[in-house]
Amino acid sequence: MMPRNLSNTLAIFFFLFVSIAAFCQKTTESIHLDIQQRTDEIFDSLVTLRRDFHMYPEVSGNEVKTSTKIAEYLTRLGLEVKTGIGGYGVVGILKGGKPGKKIAWRADIDAMPSTAPDMVEFKSKYEGVRHICGHDVHAAVALGIANVLVNHKENLAGTVYFVFQPSEENIKGALAMMDDGLFDIIEPEEMYAMHVTPFPAGTIAAKPEEMFSDYKRVDLFFEKTAHRDTLFKFAKQVILSLENVALDSKFWNMQNMGDPQIGIAGPKSIYKNYTTVDKNKFSIKETKEGIKISGYLSFSDKQQRDAAIPTLKSQIANSEHHKLLKAELVNVFPTLDNNERLVNEGLQQLSAVYGEERVLRLHGVVADGRSDDFAFFQPKVPSVYFFMGGSNYEKGIIAQTHSPNFNVDESCIKTGVNLFSSLIVERLNE
C-alpha cells in the first residue's frame, strides 16, 4: 500500500501538472485568436501594400523600389534590417522575448516581363512588366506575418528571420543571397516558404519531398558515326520510352490537377509515380567527346529520377547502337525536397488550430515541369515549401501563375498571415 504522505504528494503533483497543461493550452489558443484579430486589423493595409507592389513591379535583378519599401516597413516594426544581400535582398530579424529556436520565412519579390493586359483595376504602371506569379502577394503576406508576430514579441521563444529574396524568376536570387553571406547573417534551424496556386482561397497544402516534377536534361554521348540521323531517331525513341503515362490519360489535362479525387490533393491522385518527356525538345550536337543527344524529362519523385539513367544504359546496351560513351542527368531547375518530419508536424499543428478542411496534405506532384529556387536553401536548412490557394471560382478568379489572366482573391492574404503566423508560433513554442 502507498504511504499516505506519498499519495497526497502525487495527487498534488498531478493536479499541478493538469493545471499547468490546461493553462499552457489556453495561452496557446489565445495567441492564435490574437493572431487572427491582429490580422483582421491590418488586413486592409496589407491589401493596399500588395496593390502598391502590383502597380510598381520590378523584374529580377531590378527590385530597387520593392526592396526599399520592404526595408522601410520592417524598420518601422522595429526589426533589425539588413539590405543589399545578393542584389536587392532584404532580411528582417525579430528577436523574441525568450531564448529558443531560430526560424526563417522566405518570400520572393520579383515580377516578370509580360505584355498581357492586366486583369485588375490597380494595373501595372510599368509597361511590359507584371506580377503574374503572385510575388506581390508573397511579399505582403510575409510583411503581415512580421507585423503580427511583433505584437507577440515578448511571448516568442526564439528568433524569426524574414528573408525577402530577389531574382526568383531567373533562378539566381537564392544562390546570390547565399554567396553574399546570407547564412552568416542568419542561422535558422527551420525554414519555410509558400507560393500562390490555383487552389481555393482559404486553403494551404504541402507534402513531404517533391512538390514539382521539375525538368531535367538527359545527355547521351555516343561515338561519332556517319549515321547521325539514324542514331538521333534511335536515341529519341529510347528517351521517349521512359514516359510511363498513357497518351489518353486524364493526366494530360492540367485542369485535372485541381480535381478533388484524382488531382494532386486527391486521395486517388493520378499525379504520382510518373516520368514524362518533352516531345518537342530534342537536340543533337557534335562535341569533342562524340555525338551528344539531349532530351528533357520530368519526374514525380526520386525513385523515378534514379531509374532513368540505368534504364537508358540497359536499353542502349541491348541494341545495335551500343557505343554509348556516357549518360548524364543534368539539373535544369532545382528540385524542391520538403522535410518529411517538418511537413507532418506542421500540417498536424495547423489542422488542430484551423481545421483539416483548410490544411491539405497533397498526394500528387505538380506536373508542369516548374520549380522554385527555394530548393537551393533546402540542403542547408530543414525546410517546407507550401502551396497557398488564391482562386475564387465563383467570382471567376483563377490564380494560375504565369498565365495572362492570372489573378488572386485577396482574402488569401489573410489566410497566409493567419496560418503561417500560427505555424511559426507553434514551431517556436514547441
TrEMBL record:
Pfam families linked to this entry: Peptidase_M20
Keywords: Hydrolase
Top-level lineage group: Bacteria
InterPro entries: Amidohydrolase, Peptidase_M20
Protein name according to UniProt: Amidohydrolase
Organism classification: Bacteria, Pseudomonadati, Bacteroidota, Flavobacteriia, Flavobacteriales
